Amino acid sequence: SVYAASKWAVIGWSDSLRIELQEARSGVHVTTVAPYYIATGMFAGVRSRLVPILDPEKTARRIVRAVEHNRTFRGLPWGFHFIRLVQGLLPDKLFDALVGNAMGIYRTMDHFTGRRTPDHTSNR
């Protein structure tokens, strides 16, 4: 829940910053990127049933393109940006049933190990 909370906090803060910069006519653009799991040590052990784990190189290229095109929000993979819309439109129980259970999103961390160091057994 800490990871999810921090991601939503960044989305909210980025939206607020983007609006402030627009109102000030600063010419500075904000691109918020919300990727799914990326195949790095940070997400070691994560398993995803339907949504593919993202390749780091491809993800980096997509992020650079989003910034170059001044995209406001980029969910990765494609289509993931619709989750905010779907969550806002569906009742909680239906959203949980479809996205969490049917798509398996709520079980992806069951085998999570994360990046391990000699001093720590887990990043949880």
TrEMBL record:
Organism taxonomic ancestry: unclassified sequences, metagenomes, organismal metagenomes
Keywords, sorted A to Z: Oxidoreductase
Pfam families named among the record's database cross-references: adh_short
GO MF, any single term: oxidoreductase activity, acting on the CH-OH group of donors, NAD or NADP as acceptor
Naturally occurring in which organism (per UniProt): human gut metagenome
InterPro entries: NAD(P)-bd_dom_sf (IPR036291), SDR_fam (IPR002347)
Keyword Oxidoreductase: yes
Annotated family: Belongs to the short-chain dehydrogenases/reductases (SDR) family.
Protein name: Short chain dehydrogenase/reductase family
